[in-house]
Write a structure and sequence with these properties.
The chain has a single domain, classed as CheA-289, Domain 4 (OB fold (Dihydrolipoamide Acetyltransferase, E2P), Beta Barrel). It is mainly beta. A six-stranded mixed β-sheet has the order 8-1-2-11-10-9. The longest helix has 8 residues.
Length: about 150
């Protein structure tokens, strides 16, 4: 019975690679995962906005997390994906990741909060999850997109 309660408290995260790091995105915000496709540039957009894509008739802005975090520019290969994130029912945004790894369930005991003074990337991280031997930086996807 206690195991069932723990299962309810666990959140699911999709684990992605961005550069050399593993990041987790709360699965409740993920609408879709699509292969890399042609991105139409938009003039005078922020440097980390790559442009827009047409996904089944919906125009979706696409953002490079690498550029937003000040990392080296994206290198597109067969593993590159665009994750379509929806913070609310209306707006969708695509974020480019190097690779989608897996879905993991983490409960509160497996997540450490981040000291916000140490998080120079404003409030881009909500915590660090421990999964097996690896650490997964959990993205505060609202902070990343709304900044």
């Amino acid at each position: 019975m206690e195991e069932n309660i723990k299962e309810l408290e666990a959140k699911q995260y999709i684990v992605v690679n961005i550069g050399q790091e593993q990041y987790g995105i709360d699965i409740k915000y993920i609408d879709n995962i699509v292969r890399m496709q042609r991105i139409t540039r938009v003039p005078k957009a922020q440097h980390y906005f790559k442009g827009v894509i047409n996904l089944r008739g919906e125009i979706i802005p696409v953002m490079s997390i690498r550029l937003k975090f000040g990392l080296e520019p994206d290198e597109f290969d067969n593993g590159t994906r665009i994750i379509i994130v929806k913070l609310d029912a209306q707006s969708a945004i695509g974020i480019i990741v190097d690779e989608v790894k897996e879905v993991v369930s983490l409960d509160e005991s497996m997540i450490s909060k981040v000291n916000t003074e140490l998080d120079e990337k404003n409030n881009y991280l909500s915590g660090v999850g421990k999964h097996g031997d690896s650490l997964i930086s959990l993205l505060n996807i609202q902070g990343v997109i709304n900044d």
